[in-house]
Amino acid sequence: MKQAIADFFWGWDKEKRKYHWASWDKLSLRYDEGGIGVRKLEDICTSLQIKQWWIFRSKQTFWGQFLRAKYCQRAHPVAKKLDTEQSLIWNFMMKNKGIAETQIKWKINSGNSSFWWDDWLGEGPLASYCTHVTSLNTTKISQFLVGGTWNETMVRQWVPPLLVPKILSFPIHYQEQIPDEAIWKLTVDGLFSCSSAWEIIRHKGTKSIINKGIWHRHLPFKISFLAWRALRNKLPTNEKITSFGKEAAHCSSCYRTGEDNIDHIFVSGHFANNIWSFFSAAAGIQHDYIPINMLLLRWRRQEHKSEVQNLLNQLLPVIIIWNLWKNRCAAKYGAKQSSTARVKFLIFKDTTHLLNTAFPYIHWANNWNDLYKMVEKCRQETMVRIVKWEKPCQPLLKLNTDGSALSNPGQIGGGGILRDHLGRMIYAFAIPLGTGTNN
Ligand SMILES: [Zn+2]
């Protein structure tokens, strides 16, 4: 499957598979970690299996009841061991149970969840600290409670001494009839999301500012991807294809002889140098012979007076790289003559097209120097509006209320104030509401 996707991505040439310039594992990293932002199919499958486990554990579904009846009639799902004899779906879920369970926390309401196997304390299942608890143990949290608080004698009797203080000080907001709730730890709202699951299972690379800089939602994929390949020396330059047994050829862009390699095509060659110098001058950036990644970094780190300028400093180098490559290929394989004037024009055209997409209401200048000056001067406008409390008309009173959460989920509370037509306080209140989410 992976092979098929990779083949499709790199393409076929006359029934022959094309050379794969990078492994699918490297491609499937996040942008900022040096990938091209695709997710590996196997990782997507795993996150879906984790999702199935989450639904099985957190919701009352017919399918969940069926699984429980079939596989967990005696043992608690957390304690259940993998058995290869059992169905495929169940086994896939079981395989990822370990990952899923560490991200699930239980909020106690009526205490119907398992005291020993459900992680409500945030320390993992308590059964893992005891030898006397078996997978068949069905003790509920409510059995350790008396009148909505901990039954201290019982806790001391059954729980390892080290955990006792933590349990006794663990706040309970007992709510009869309301089942305990599962909270997915990785999201703000406590609900499962596939991307949060994907984030913990995927293979990770090292982050770098240049990696991220070549991708932008306003840049077409092919343009960013070309820069990605240039940065990794994964382009069919003459220097590169001689290693496949082809004959070396000279640079096609310049009017003089030179090598056809990444550095020459994109930075140090006569042609590239002419283009960079032209665009760098207006931006006040010095252009000299540094490796291509350093060049991108220099543009990215360039000081900016406006956010638009910042955006342009990030995207222009990527557009330049794209057009340098297009020109080189047109001169090498097509009938076109290499031309600095044409390339400058095309870079300018691509740039204004991009700015028009991002800021459709601005009429941009029609030459590079004016455009850059304009971009420097762009300011974001902020509107100031006074928000004020107004007194109610007699005999009405006004009640203002609000709620807050210290963290999410975390300690929550609400409060309010009742005032009359002169703004005098009639009544005010504040109530802690226990633990919850900010919505
Ligand atoms: Zn050249």
UniProtKB/TrEMBL annotation:
CDD domains: RNase_H_like
Location of the RNase H type-1 domain: 393-439
Pfam families: zf-RVT
Recorded GO MF terms: nucleic acid binding; RNA-DNA hybrid ribonuclease activity
Stored InterPro entries: RNase_H-like_dom_plant, RNaseH_domain, RVT-Znf
UniProt protein name: RNase H type-1 domain-containing protein
Organism in which the protein naturally occurs: Solanum verrucosum
